[in-house]
Structures are given as C-alpha cells and as structure tokens.
Amino acid sequence: MRAHEKSGDLLDLPDSPSATVDAPITEKPGTQIGPYKLLQEIGEGGMGVVYMADQTNPSNGVWR
Predict the structure, then answer these.
(1) Rounded Cα distance, 40 and 17, in Å
(2) Cβ pair 56, 62 in contact under 8 A
(3) Does the predicted TM-score (pTM) go above 0.70?
C-alpha cells in the first residue's frame, strides 16, 4: 500500500506538453534544427511527424 501511495497519478501531464490543436507543430521543410535542415515530410502518425533531413555541417564520418 505504501508503494501505491508513492507511485503518483498515471494521468499527470508532462512538464512540457507536445503539440496540440491549440499549439500545432511549427516545423516544416526548410526549418533548421541544430545541424539539420528538414527537407521533406516522409511520414506522420500518432507520435509525430518524420522528416528527411540534411546535415548542414557533416563531420566527414568522424564520430565524436
């Protein structure tokens, strides 16, 4: 019973809500996100939108 009291409410909202009808997603082809430029939308579903992107400053295959 103590564990149940500590578990919290499963319906609590996250600190930063995702896009909604009132605050739609603003990203679109041409948007720059960090080192990536969105090229085109390739899919959409319940968890969000997937874009093809181009890395604007490639690292020439060197992992850091």
Answers:
(1) 25
(2) no
(3) no
Identify the CA nearest to 34 among candidates 57, 13, 14: 57
Q: Which pair of tokens denotes residue 12? A: 């609590």
Euclidean distance between CA atoms 18 and 25, whole angstroms? 9
- Give the separation between CA 8 and CA 2, rounded to whole angstroms: 11
Q: What is the DSSP string of 1-64?
A: -HHHHHS--TTPPPSS----SSS-----TT-EETTEEEEEEEEEETTEEEEEEEESS--TT---
Q: What is the pLDDT of residues 22-37, one digit of tens each?
A: 767 788 999 999 889 9
